[in-house]
Protein: LacI family DNA-binding transcriptional regulator
Organism: Actinoallomurus oryzae
Amino acid sequence: MGMGTVGIKEVARRAGVSPGTVSNVLNHPERVRAETRDRVEQAIRDLGFVRNGSAATLRAGQNRAIGLVVLDVGNPFFVEVARGVEDVVSDRDHAVILCNSGESFEKEARNLRVLAEQRVRGVLITPAGEDLASVETLRARDVAVVLVDHSAPGDLCSVSVDDVAGGDLAVTHLLDRGAERLAYVSGPMAIRQCSERRKGARRALRTAGLPVRALEEMIVPEMNANGGRAAAEKLLAAGLPDAIFCANDMLALGVLRALSQAGVKVPDDVALIGYDDIEFSAAGTVPLSSIRQPTYQLGKIATELLLDECDDPDGHAHQQIMFQPELVVRESSR
Amino acid sequence: MGMGTVGIKEVARRAGVSPGTVSNVLNHPERVRAETRDRVEQAIRDLGFVRNGSAATLRAGQNRAIGLVVLDVGNPFFVEVARGVEDVVSDRDHAVILCNSGESFEKEARNLRVLAEQRVRGVLITPAGEDLASVETLRARDVAVVLVDHSAPGDLCSVSVDDVAGGDLAVTHLLDRGAERLAYVSGPMAIRQCSERRKGARRALRTAGLPVRALEEMIVPEMNANGGRAAAEKLLAAGLPDAIFCANDMLALGVLRALSQAGVKVPDDVALIGYDDIEFSAAGTVPLSSIRQPTYQLGKIATELLLDECDDPDGHAHQQIMFQPELVVRESSR
DNA sequence: GGAGCGAGTTGACACGTTTTAATCAGGTCG
DNA sequence: CGACCTGATTAAAACGTGTCAACTCGCTCC
């Protein structure tokens, strides 16, 4: 079929123009006369030419793409964020490279290196922990970075949701409902979301005049349904609390499932509330109470911030945007 | 900080060697003397050098990456496939570029063009329809292609699950359970999975001696929870059947939710079965019966096939692998 | 009619890497 | 002592595109 690869210069020869003109047709169509343009476009179709993106990127010094590094692609929360990102990015004629860090520093660092090698214009990242060293490394190489769902120090853009408020909201709700012994099921405290939500939970306890130890902690390595199940089994063994607050809905769904299997009634025996309000929460065995976040907006705004910074690196003022979360009460804590 | 971008030649100067040696350190470490290697690696660290992937790709003619084009990143089925892909690919020191076609031909074509521009070594794709023209275009440019969850003609690799058998399994089960009037909630018939599963469903009817019209069809444009909800509302308006078979679990979850809200009891008033057996199915308001597929395997095997073809394009024999699905009965059809 | 102009086009170079053949040092063998 | 080999290093030539200064051509204006 196509003998070898067909490049810009073969197109040029066929259309009877110079390679420079073909390049102009691709990148600055307005600069070339309509008739010439048609001839070139015809040649492109005839030869089935596809621009070599690497060459373009090499020449330009940067890729028309941004990276998105999330903690877990299996979590609908991040899928929704990604939708927001994707929509903005494709409007602006860029591409997204989606990477999964699986909450691991090592994978995060590897992903960032790949993105740096690809010379992406910028990176959206939900860091796996508090240590932003690898992010700083990236910025030192002139890659714009916006933190997603993670607030940032002043010299960086970030878009987040007030996790302290969310934790407070959840636990206050559980306390209002009459709970006295609580449990917090969470991923590692190195993950900002986890520690912030705990902070909010503790604040709620203080406000209610309760000691911090009224909140038992159950930490699992991975914030997914398996983690939730494991936590629930430990809680079952150790004696159930009145109410359980989970650091995200995936955990909560796992907890819910394990409890159901053990014959524990939610919310009669134990009240349960999650975090993120993912689509599946409402459809659970017992519809799940949760803390809703403006997920799609998170991705959308973050991307706009990032692309603005890319387009005008100097005139750009870093901003930290913080949304407020919202309590959604359903069957699991009624 | 880093003045301009630091390239291989600045590293070379600093280490007191030639650029070629630096390249060798990166790509063929065994060719360079240990002492020299250390010096170069030190220089790399000192300068914070990151290899420019575009230049490498340009020179090599292809990217150490493969593309994965799925119908819906929001669907846990594809997320699981992606995990299988990712695991194999990273073992072989490649990268995955994940693309979402959203079941749209246009987005599919755009994604394939981007992948072609990036000069990926190969592409794994679940086509949005029967028309494989864009896939053929890609192959004409020497990009290896493996079809995922979609059986292929002989000149192409594919890894799929027997959807006819799956449809048969589901409907036979519903019939065994005593259903007489059935509905099939599905995405567009242009999507192979949808039409194949219908074929299986009809076969089951024939086997049972029932006419094809015993299976009412309800087709929605998108195979997600919203589509399911819409279908359920139409069914409610038109008069409910005894049993509903959904072309995937996302649809089934939407149907289930809409029915619950309308006060319809599952499985007492209507039996329900989905397809894919995604993780959330078991946790539904009513745990969902489903057809299980070896999802992770699908991604894993497909990737192995693809990379084998890339590594040895000539000695490669195309194969079509087909797995058998499995019936999982839960509350929704008990 | 020549200077000046603007639109359209061209040719050559640069981007950063990998590869290939050539070079070099050091050692072995005849 | 020179021919020959081995292993380590180098210089130079690609890879395919985008940019930019230079150039052409047809016009207008004085």
User: Anything to note?
Assistant: Residues 17-21, 24, 31-33, 36, 55, 57-61 of chain A lie near DNA strand C (CB under 10 Å from a C1'). Chain A touches chain B through 47 residues (CB under 8 Å).
